[in-house]
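**Protein of interest**
===
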Amino acid sequence: MAVIERAILIHASCQDVFAYISDFRNDEAWRKFIRAVEHDPPGLAWLGTRIRETILVFGVPVHGESEVMQYEQDRWIATHVLPRSRGVATRRGAEPRGNSCRCTISLEPQLRGSFRLAQSLLAVVFRRRLITDLNRLKQVLEEPRPRPVPARPATRL
């Protein structure tokens, strides 16, 4: 299947955007059809980190495993699908644009079995999902952070 790529401008620092998109534990907050993500070793992803995820495709859970193969701090992170696995190879990037950040996500689904027969339909589905997910990501990262409310001094009656 061809590479699907989309970008969105996020009004946040590229460091914040990259920190968020390169931490796969955050995927469940902005990727609508993701059902589970775990990686080994735990913590922030780095070269060699293995990611196991479950996504829904036409209501069917699909389990995939990939590995971080390329990483440039505060710029981009790329994964590839491990042999004998299904999943989606990704490239996630953050580039400064004035006071904002251009976030680009590329997907390359690795289809097997019956999913291969629906390749052209799945391309449309993945393209739409990516647009939806990027809009959710923008919303999450631009949402004002709650500020702690100072405690009121106790009043005496």
Summary: The beta strands are 4-10, 34-40, 50-57, 60-72, 76-81, 87-97, 100-110. Residues 17 and 94 are 7 Å apart (CA to CA). The chain has a mean pLDDT of 88.
